[in-house]
Amino acid sequence: MRRNLVHDLEARASGSPHRIGLIHEDGRTWTYRQIDQAASAVARALVEHGLTPGSRVGLYLANSPELVFGLAGCWKAGLVPVPMSGLYNFDEVRSCVAKTGPDMVVADPAKLPEDGVGVPLLPLDVVRAAGETARGSAGSDSPPVRAPEPAEEDEGLLLFTGGSTGMPKAVAVTHSGTHASMSTLARAQKGGRQPEEGLYALVDESVPPNLVLLPLFHGGGIQSLLFSWHVGRTVLLVERFSVDRIARLVPRYRVDNLFLLPTMVYDLTHTTERPDLSSVRKVLVAGQRLDPELKTLFEQRFGVIVMSNYGSAELGHVAGWNARDVREGRWKPGSVGRIYDGVELEIRDEDGASQQTGRQGEIWVKSTRTKGYVDTGGDGASLVENGWVRSGDIGYVDADRVLYLVGRSREVIKTGGFQVWPGELEGVLRRHPAVADIAVVGVADDRLGEVPKAFVVPTAGTAAGTALADELVAWCRERLAHFKSVRQVAFVDALPRSEAGKVQRAALVASDASRSSGANDSKESA
Fold this sequence. Notes:
Rossmann fold
């Protein structure tokens, strides 16, 4: 049977209806049956509005139980959810809608006017009422909606992810490939053990919930949600990450593992408080490379081992470490992990030729997870070729199938686990009357890994200095989500360009590393 992404939830609701499947940070809980009831109500509402299998549905919602019900409801109705960041402003949501073509958007009308994006709106109250009705009832008079079995190539989800140029792009991932990737991680975390019926037995009720800290518009957040149900764990959901939430929820629920972005590791390591993480046995980090020194500082402070996981929305789970690897001495410093069993990976040169062990090149992974980009956003590079998916990352593999990253061929800036696209920022800044020419690159930052820095050629007669730099930062902040905004500005007489006229971004990054902070730089902390 091909797995719909909601089939695990349905199986839990049928086999263990009274077990808690979802806890919100405010203390509200839903059993597996209640989650299934809420999702069924959402599915019926979407179908009643004329949506048919294969239709796309935008979900412009904050991290919340309502977003969980919205995702599951779409899958039950055979629809394709398109989660959009609750941090996006109106123009960014409209751009997402234009790229992906949803037939409806689920949102709070107070944040998104009904006629604002050109497609019908299903009000948030409909989803909220479904959740509260289900939570307040022991059962339902209406039979649950059963999700259809998807075809091998059926879209299961559209995720906004990165490209080498231009605006954020939406990648279409399949039900089957996403479930297969999740199973790969589960087997790795469970020492190779695989359930006979495709679903692991529920853990004992004394086992703590999995704390989901990543947003559900993020591939890592959705994977955390689905993974928890797949391996029989309860989900503990928060609106957003903060050290205060960690300090409050981890001791209360005796959370025993954390899935973090490097930025979160930084915040926990450098907070003046000392959150009680005594119940935590391991931390899994993904999203971008974790600085080895920061890893050591975290482990020394909290006495918790930190392991890495390499993958992406396009690739799925590719490589990583688990506790057994560390105990048995297989862990290698500087690597991102051992390639998971069942994952086919090649290192290829610029001509597409497979490289020998130890040779550097671009990482390609054979995967059924992604169908490719819905909108190339001006990026002509092919994502999928004959079942192989390109990563855009440069790395190498040693004789033990351990993967190392060297750098990225793409120009995407990874800041705090989120992806920022230079072209989008450059387009915004070019609209400022003081900007004659502009290039944005990622520069190193102790906390966020990288932050966007703008190198600006000012218009003739413009006074370049701190005041203008601060004005340009504010210009970005007013027009883009906070995490995408330029954090630093430097003024230059001209941008370095190749003979073909292309900006030499590597030269800007190199010049930034050698320059000292001066009056013409504006710096802002997150």
